[in-house]
Amino acid sequence: MNYKVLDVNSVIEYLLTIKAIETFFGSDTIKAQEIGDGNLNYVYKVSSEQDPEKALIAKQAVPYLRCVGEEFPLSRERMTFEIRALDKFYKIFPNFIPKVQHSSEEMSLVVMEYLGNHIIMREGLINGVKYTKFSEHISTYMSATLFYTSSLALSSSNKRELMDKFNGNTELCKLTEDLVFSFPFMEHETNDNENVTSNPNAKKLFEDFEFKEKVLDLKYKFMTQSDALLHGDLHTGSIMINKDETYVIDPEFAFVGPFGFDVGALLANLVNNYIHHCVVTKDEEFKEWLLQTIKEVLDKFSEKFLQYWRELKDSALCVSGYLDDRTSEVYKKRFVKNIIRDSVGFAGCKMARRVYGVAGVAEIRGIQDVTLRGEAEELALKIAREFVMNYDKINTSDEILEIIKNAR
Amino acid sequence: MNYKVLDVNSVIEYLLTIKAIETFFGSDTIKAQEIGDGNLNYVYKVSSEQDPEKALIAKQAVPYLRCVGEEFPLSRERMTFEIRALDKFYKIFPNFIPKVQHSSEEMSLVVMEYLGNHIIMREGLINGVKYTKFSEHISTYMSATLFYTSSLALSSSNKRELMDKFNGNTELCKLTEDLVFSFPFMEHETNDNENVTSNPNAKKLFEDFEFKEKVLDLKYKFMTQSDALLHGDLHTGSIMINKDETYVIDPEFAFVGPFGFDVGALLANLVNNYIHHCVVTKDEEFKEWLLQTIKEVLDKFSEKFLQYWRELKDSALCVSGYLDDRTSEVYKKRFVKNIIRDSVGFAGCKMARRVYGVAGVAEIRGIQDVTLRGEAEELALKIAREFVMNYDKINTSDEILEIIKNAR
């Protein structure tokens, strides 16, 4: 079918022509309802009249940024990469990816499992909900998706095939280059300029060339380091969660990039939440749980990544018989430590960009009280700076916790 | 035209159907002669009967390794990448690239300028010929091709387009991964095993896990660092030269990889030649010229690369207004120093692989006297080890010369 933008009526017509959808709903009558949380895309909940629990999500990309309108063009091919990434990640570890019932690159459309019993993790964390299984889940997700799409696991040709499939995601990579690594650290029209103009902390940041030079190293890594298939935007708003289950959604920024970028995105968002609780709720117990969770996420990620690697006897990188066991183990541990280091660097960039850049996070920009918001911003910039200036010297997750705790 | 393997007769028939070739030779009668220096491909000299000076080279890839035969299949698409690289490099700096008159990806064929007044540089250097303009030429070639195909110069989307064009060169990348970074440092059937078995130095190398761990870092960089479009096999056998001109040929290994790999390949081959003269001719004056040339190549490369960069006010990496001039200059100098460091590391791998690996160099493996050859091998391994163990601490080209000179 040739591309056309669907609405609440035509989405039903379209879906009724798809075998898999027909099978899913059987003889039920189906209805669609637009649900409004997509900044970029149109999202519909499609459900059975007879059994409202039986539901799917239909998500379609339009050739512009939905929340702004047609005057902000953004190629709808971003959905192509979301479809491919959902498929790839599902094949690696289905537990953490919504099951796709139908997808069409031509229509820039994906139809998948409706996660009715889960909420956006960011909201849960703001409300102080502890997700005790999260560190276990997300460390498995990250280590498995990153390891099994890297040159440590894939053959040389399979890796290049994977790169081919995602190399075209230029527009969203460019958004990250600009909006994460550049504009938030200089005078720019895209910034939250109401807050920036005549703000001495913004001025200080924009003139912190020591910091910005290190950011440039990390930006260069983002642009040129082809480690593994990334989610590309792994913040707590891309995670649907409840006490028992964790789902990672919205991988439209997926591309083959540096290992540390996904881990760093998550780390940044957990720390931003910690800052929120420092400044707003002052809930010491929840803060303690957050710190513990950060430590567990990082340590379990390292352990599992190493474990997947140890299970592989031969790889494109290290052919069987090249190294002895002892050196091999030393090499792998050093390699994984470097992933964590880069993650800390990327986390610093991601935290700092949320302060004055175009897309703030609810935990900080959402604070109504101006004084408290200023306090949170300062804290975020302080931790971000420590992360960026010292990431390449970090040795343990405890050192990361120390930076976070000592920032006040 | 559908692909078919051409011979000395059908190559003429084919070329007569090509407008550009007809224009080149006018009404002359043309003849073809096979010239035998291709390991991988068929190479014909096509010239005018009336004016033998008027000549072109026709080079066709066959779907196997020509020097071994059909039992060693190697996809003929390697010529696709050679054609694309010749075109790309010629557009950047035509002075150092043979002019292409006709090319066909379908036919895996390229027809280009015949370099009748030039010889393979390796032969000239073995015979002690000093090429006084070489450092000037090759430093321009390397700095221009690497800089202008990198994320430092290209927009984000042009860079990804470039990657798309070369990402398919999987087979030759895999050859390098195996034959440069892995097999020459372990027991393997592809090695020069006559020389390896019961050779204590080979045994020592194969068990030097400290060295091999560092080689693995460099191999990983080769596999995943997408800096710029590389020649991919820039040794002195890929350079045609005379006193006044320098041409870089045979870029079939071209792909988007780490900056230091081309510079390192050249460095390794100049040092191998130095070792030859240490052991065989003992020509102190020529050795001194070689050392001076190595220094000039590296220093001029750095200067020119920096100069191209300074001329660019805005880039995908560093948008205008992001850094102040002072920090920008510090950043760029540090960046270029890191290219030189990586080059030294890659040079070490490339030197060491030539000792016992599948493809030796004339300067060392070609030494008839077993004792002298052993001496040359030992020297090569010693310098290679110093390079690989210390590359990430190198600060100046003089330190590189010290390693080379002190190896005896």
UniProtKB/TrEMBL annotation, chains A, B:
Keywords: ATP-binding, Kinase, Nucleotide-binding, Transferase. Pfam families: APH. Residues 224-271 form the Aminoglycoside phosphotransferase domain. Gene3D superfamilies: 3.90.1200.10, Phosphorylase Kinase, domain 1 (3.30.200.20). InterPro entries: Aminoglycoside_PTrfase, Kinase-like_dom_sf, Methylthioribose_kinase. Its EC number is 2.7.1.100. It comes from the Bacteria. One of its GO terms (molecular function) is ATP binding. The keyword Secreted does not apply. One of its GO terms (biological process) is methionine biosynthetic process. Belongs to the methylthioribose kinase family. PANTHER family: METHYLTHIORIBOSE KINASE (PTHR34273:SF2). This is S-methyl-5-thioribose kinase. It comes from Candidatus Sulfurimonas marisnigri. The gene is mtnK.
